[in-house]
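Exercise: predict the fold of this chain.
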Amino acid sequence: MRCPWRSHSVGRLEPLDAHTTRLRATTDEPDWYVRQLTALRAPFRVIGSRELREAAREFGQRLLDAAGHRGG
């Protein structure tokens, strides 16, 4: 599957159905990878890697803090 706005270094796309695509990848730099995911022009959900989910949670909290959100 070709996607002009996605770098090949981010992973391999696999269509699941007419509305869903899976991005398969591996990384040893979850903080870098989560920043790449935030550049995608589509909603996404992280499944699998505990380290990547934690990096996404931490990055998301940093963005919320920057916007003045007082969460926990």
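Check your answer against the key: The mean pLDDT is 86.
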